[in-house]
Every structure is written in C-alpha cells, then in structure tokens.
UniProtKB/TrEMBL annotation:
InterPro entries: BaxI_1-like. The chain crosses the membrane at residues 72-105, 135-156, 168-190, 202-220, 240-260. Coiled coil: none annotated. This is Bax inhibitor 1 like protein. It holds the Pfam family BaxI_1. The keyword Phosphoprotein does not apply. Keywords: Membrane, Transmembrane, Transmembrane helix.
Length: 266
C-alpha cells in the first residue's frame, strides 16, 4: 500500500474485498461503478474495518461529502467577505487548525468535525480574500480548474502514482515546508526573509513550485481514496476522505491566491 502526503488518509482502515473501484480501464468517475480510495493506516487494525457494519463506500458518497464540504467553505467565505467581518479570519483559522488536528489524531470519521473544519477555513479564507476581492473569484476558479484537471490526469493514467512518484512527492513536500519555515524564521531577523513571499520574481517562482507540489499532491489523495474503495471500507469514511481533500484544496487555494495577489500591487 502506497503512502500519501495527506495525514488524514493515513487513518483510513483497509481490508481485502472487491467493491466498486476507480479502475482506469473501466467506468468513469460519474458512472457510479467507479470511486475514490484511501491508504492503509498503521494505527488502525484492518480487521477492525471488517467488523464494522455498513455498506462499502462508493464514488457518490465521496462526491457528495466533498461537494457539501466545499460548498460550505465557499458560502462561509462569501458571507465573510460580504459582511466585512474580517476580524473573524484569525480565530476561524485557529479553529480550523485545531479541528484538523482532532480529526487526524482521533482516527475516526466525523461529519460534524469535517463540516466545522470546512466552515472555519471558509471564514478564514474569506477574511484573507477580502484584501484582494478581485482575486478571490480567480483563485476559486483556478483551484477548481486544478482539482478537476488533476482528476483527469489521474483518471487517464497520464501520471501514474507509483512508489517512486510518491517518494519524489514526499521529498518535494518536505523541501517546500523547510523553505517556508526558513523564510518565516529569517523574516524575524531580516525584512522579507529569504524573499520567498515578497512578490519578487523569486517569490513568484517559489509560488509556482508550491502550487505544483500542491496540485500533484492531489494525485496522491486520489490514489489513497482509490485504495480505500477497492478495500471496501465502510461508507462513513467518506467524511474522512472529504476532509483530506479539503485540506489539500485549502492549501492550493491559498497558494493560488497568493500568486495572483502579487500582480495586484499594494
């Protein structure tokens, strides 16, 4: 079982069983016979999943849960921008991070927590987006475009999620995080830090790299979800998968918004 860069998917139990899959040689995503999947968790006993009651997860479950979560985030973000309650952005972001940690370490799917995370991050991103109202819509369209584009890439097998690909992605992710932290630390001592977030040509290049890493991380998420459906995990884990996809989408939106804001000026 391949690993994934998304910690949420590491808590998906798996078991052997033949249920609906997202087979690249078979039906399409919206055909009802195909589905997303998830990766095996080293913290959850696969036999535990076999004992859980409930029907196996399907593509419709994941599409619906992800659509509800994403829709809630969009509505919360729009209402925050429309009301001008930008002051709620920071506390909402803190709530979102705390809820995310709870979901990851609780190791159990939870619709209320997934929706709370989506709503809180929607408010947070709505507050951030208020700084550049014209950029927000472009960032939303860009995020949706990347999401569906990478879904097509995964579905067609244009880029295959192999163990080697996963290792490269893990390395890229670690490298990006290290550079972000280094830039943050340096910003306390030198104005602008390493120049990775100041709107300079270097910052633009760095943002493009980060967007690329976030986009290809979606392939790992799709593959992790694919494996969960093939394993026949219970339907309730669709909320776990929706949460995992939302964390990647939030990151992707932030990076796209940041890049577009560089071209807006002060």
């Amino acid at each position: 079982m391949r690993s994934t860069s998304n910690p949420a998917f590491r808590n998906l139990p798996t078991q052997q069983g033949g249920y609906a899959t997202f087979d690249r040689s078979g039906g399409g995503m919206m055909g009802g016979a195909s589905a997303y999947a998830g990766s095996q968790s080293s913290h959850v006993d696969p036999s535990q999943a076999a004992q859980e009651t409930g029907r196996p997860i399907t593509v419709d479950d994941i599409v619906q849960r992800t659509a509800i979560s994403g829709g809630l985030a969009l509505v919360a973000g729009f209402l925050t921008m429309w009301s001008g309650l930008i002051v709620l952005a920071l506390p909402a972001f803190v709530v979102g991070i705390v809820v995310a940690l709870i979901v990851i370490f609780k190791q159990k799917p939870s619709a209320p927590l997934t929706l709370t995370y989506s709503g809180a991050m929607g408010v947070a991103l709505g507050g951030i987006s208020s700084m550049y109202p014209g950029v927000a819509l472009q960032a939303v369209i860009g995020t949706a475009g990347v999401f569906f584009g990478m879904l097509v890439v995964y579905k067609t097998g244009a880029v295959r999620v192999t163990p080697r690909f996963t290792k490269w992605m893990m390395g890229a992710l670690i490298g990006v995080v290290v550079l972000m932290l280094a830039n943050l630390v340096m910003s306390f001592f030198v104005g602008g830090g390493l120049g990775l977030r100041d709107g300079s040509p270097l910052a633009i290049l760095f943002s493009l790299v980060v967007i690329g890493v976030a986009a290809f991380s979606l392939l790992l998420d799709f593959d992790a979800a694919d494996n969960a459906v093939k394993a026949g995990v219970p339907e309730k884990y669709s909320w776990y998968i929706a949460f995992g996809l939302m964390t990647t989408l939030v990151w992707l939106y932030i990076e796209i918004f940041r890049l577009l804001s560089y071209f807006q000026g002060d």
